[in-house]
Amino acid sequence: MKLCRFLAPGLVRATNTICTGLVVEESSVLDLTAAGWPILGTLLDRDALSAELERLARRSDLPRYPLEEVKLLPPVERQEVWAAGVTYLRSKKARMEESDFSATAYDRVYEAERPELFFKSLPEKVVGPGEAVGIRRDAKWNVPEPELALVINSRGNIVGYTIGNDMSSRDIEGENLLYLPQAKIYSRSCALGPWIVVGATEEEARSWKIGIQIRRADQVVFAGETSVGQIKRTFQALVEFLFRSQHFPHGAVLLTGTGVVPPETFTLQPEDVIRIDVSGIGTLENTVELV
Ligand code: DO4
Ligand code: MG
Question: Which of 43, 63, 75, 77 could make an S-S bridge to 31, C-beta 3.0–4.6 Å?
């Protein structure tokens, strides 16, 4: 079951009404706003969510649009977006190489019980499918980080999964660990989408592959792949730490870290196209612009 936020084609789109949608038969979107679910977060809070979505999918009275004609929006409204770091061995090694005096911090956090968790984005700043992600104009070394994102309801339950891109400026991060918020949080630094997959277990999600391809003038300039199963920590442990001494009245999205790191000679350029595929979810594609 795939939940999304979208602008409907034609007249409805002209009024800019944002709808909650259910993707059915891979090719259509049912408008759940018409079924009394204008807010995705409220729906995600519902008990027995999968059963409710199956019931809604059978309704023939709801507006239905071809998937290719709607504009998909980022699948977040009021949820804070957070990210976990150094959850893959590959990420730990890359961070230790990029920085001399921060190396032990990465080494320690990879082994520690408490994970690295950082605030990534306000929901209204998240970029959706087909939109541009940003590279900072004051950074020289910019990379995408393709990550599985956990969608968590206000009670701290993982109710779905989407694709995340934790855009990062590695030279700023590598210069001094205290610059991490500037390396990670700036305009267009977080992309999410194309939708939320509901109903998969952690075990299923751990079998998914995460692939990334970066194209420049139609040439592939970087491609890489990892498996969600390489994440060192359980999803439950990450969420438990995120919700410690903190509540999220609208739920939260948690990126789970990157396991694919381009070589040190690689940096993104404006107009590059980043395509991230997660086998159990779909594809998130964004162009790159200077911010
Ligand atoms: O500590 C730096 C950030 C780590 C991160 O974003 C990742 O591992 O994905
Ligand atoms: Mg990351």
Answer: 63
Residues 234-243: pLDDT tens digits? 999 999 999 9
Two tokens, residue 193: 């989408």
Contacts of 189 (CB under 8 A, 6+ apart): 120, 121, 133, 134, 166, 167, 168
For ligand 1, whether the C-beta of 135 sits within 6 Å is no
155 bridge partner residues: none
- The predicted model gives 212-235 an average pLDDT of 97
Alpha carbon nearest to ligand 1 atom 4, residue? 85
Alpha-carbon distance of 225 to 246, in angstroms, equals 34
Burial 73-111 (b: 16+ CB within 10 A, else e): bbbbbebbbbbbbbbbebbbebbbebbeebeeebeebbe
C-alpha of residue 178 to centroid of ligand 1, in Å: 13
Q: For residue 132, count other CB atoms closer than 10 A to its CB.
A: 17
Cα 108 to ligand 1 centroid, rounded to whole Å: 13
3-state helix, strand, coil in the chain (%, to 5): 25, 35, 35
Distance CA 94, CA 259 (A): 10
Work out which ligand 1 atom sits closest to the CA atom of 257: 9
Model's pTM, two decimal places? Answer: 0.96
